[in-house]
Amino acid sequence: MGKFITFEGIDGAGKSTHIAFVSDYIKARGVELVSSREPGGTPLGEKLRDLVLHETMHLETEALLMFASRREHIAQVIAPALERGAWVISDRFTDASFAYQGGGRGMSVAKLEALEQWVHPALQPDLTLLFDVPLEVARARLDATRELDKFEQEKADFFAATRAEYLRRAAQFPQRFRVIDSTRSIADIQLRLAAILDGFFDEQ
Ligand SMILES: Nc1ncnc2c1ncn2[C@@H]1O[C@H](COP(=O)(O)OP(=O)(O)O)[C@@H](O)[C@H]1O
Ligand SMILES: Cc1cn([C@H]2C[C@H](O)[C@@H](COP(=O)(O)OP(=O)(O)O)O2)c(=O)[nH]c1=O
């Protein structure tokens, strides 16, 4: 079996900035790597992504579409890759549903756990990199760079709750989570990522 690594954090924390670095670092070890994202990662998932990022909908519809996209992603991409021994990096996975639909929007943890049990009862990431920054830093980075989607337009209290839920989960699952202080410079964060990945390779 390959290894499954997920990237998490509130919008603007710096996840996307570090994916190429982590990919290259893993590939340099001679491992086959599949890099993907959620919502999305398959042709159907990308259509669902477009809907869920731009249409207003009931909270539970939003959660169900996230898990529908995930079901397809696991079936088409993640499970086959892990089974053939490849490593998989996903820009977000189920922790994002707990943080955004749960923490941010207030959906019950019990309902999210039921969906998780349904869609991937036996699969969890081997390593989750949580890019953590205060809201003001994330907001300033987003404002400086891009057009904001539905989630990115949310207010500060939404992101405070989202960030808090991510940190709660990191404390709940310390085995797989590594929290990265994303207020640091990109170079400092790369040093920290390299140390985390070296440790992770040593454990294998
Ligand atoms: N450590 C950092 N220091 C300064 N700017 C950063 C840092 N990390 C990311 N950025 C910048 O912040 C913006 C948002 O980063 P991005 O990686 O797209 O965030 P995310 O994928 O988490 O939403 C980008 O313009 C990026 O260049
Ligand atoms: C996977 C997932 C993402 N999301 C949200 C978080 C993000 O705001 C958005 C898209 O994620 P992201 O890939 O970070 O967007 P970008 O391309 O702008 O960096 O989807 C959820 O609300 N629940 C989920 O389960």
Question: How does this structure look, described?
Answer:
The structure is a single chain. This protein has 204 residues and is an alpha/beta fold. It has one domain (4-33, 79-203): P-loop containing nucleotide triphosphate hydrolases (Rossmann fold, 3-Layer(aba) Sandwich). The chain contains 8 helices and 5 strands; from the N terminus they run E-H-E-H-H-E-H-H-E-H-H-E-H. The protein has helices at 15-27, 43-54, 59-83, 94-104, 109-119, 135-145, 156-172, 186-203; strands at 4-8, 33-37, 87-91, 127-132, 177-181. The chain has a 5-stranded parallel beta sheet with strand order 2-3-1-4-5, with helices on both faces. The radius of gyration is 16 Å and the shape is globular. Bound molecules: adenosine-5'-diphosphate (ADP) and thymidine-5'-diphosphate (TYD). Belongs to the thymidylate kinase family. Phosphorylation of dTMP to form dTDP in both de novo and salvage pathways of dTTP synthesis. ATP binds at residues 9-16. It comes from Duganella callida. One of its GO terms (molecular function) is dTMP kinase activity.
Please give the largest β-sheet.
5 strands, parallel
| Percentage of residues assigned to helices | 55-70%
CATH topology: Rossmann fold
Using the coordinates above, name the CATH class: Alpha Beta
- The CATH superfamily bears the name P-loop containing nucleotide triphosphate hydrolases
Got a strand count?
A: 5
Secondary-structure class? alpha/beta
Q: How big is the Rg?
A: 16 Å
Lateral strand order in the biggest sheet: 2-3-1-4-5
- Bound chemical compounds: adenosine-5'-diphosphate, thymidine-5'-diphosphate
Distance between termini? 11 Å
The H/E string reads EHEHHEHHEHHEH
Can you count the helices? 8
Q: What is the CATH architecture descriptor?
A: 3-Layer(aba) Sandwich
| Uncertain stretches of 5 or more adjacent residues | none
Mean pLDDT: 96
**Shape estimate:** globular
Return the domain count. 1
Proportion of β residues?
5-15%
Keywords: ATP-binding, Kinase, Nucleotide biosynthesis, Nucleotide-binding, Transferase
InterPro entries: P-loop_NTPase, Thymidylate_kin-like_dom, Thymidylate_kinase
Pfam families: Thymidylate_kin (PF02223)
Protein name: Thymidylate kinase
